[in-house]
Amino acid sequence: MLYEKGYIQSYKFEDNQVQGVIKIALKYHPLTKDSAILSLQRISKPGLRKYFKAEELPRVLNGLGIAVVSTSKGLMTDKEARNLKVGGEVMCYVY
User: Which residues is 74 bridged to in the sheet?
Assistant: First the structure.
């Protein structure tokens, strides 16, 4: 999802004998060398899950960022969940 939205440059799955590894290449602005991801904030935690209805889903930076939402129809952004009128657990904010 972060690749589709333009926050990361590429990703690759590598299989280890012990556990799988995901290698991620971060995306940077060519002139200023600033990262595309300024902040990644975890919202739901194992001890406290945060669920929202479709009309109550939070807007991240007034729509400039995304909230990753786990719904019954799979992982999607807050905008996609609002359009499909489905709520769920907000995993994190990315901006």
Answer: 71
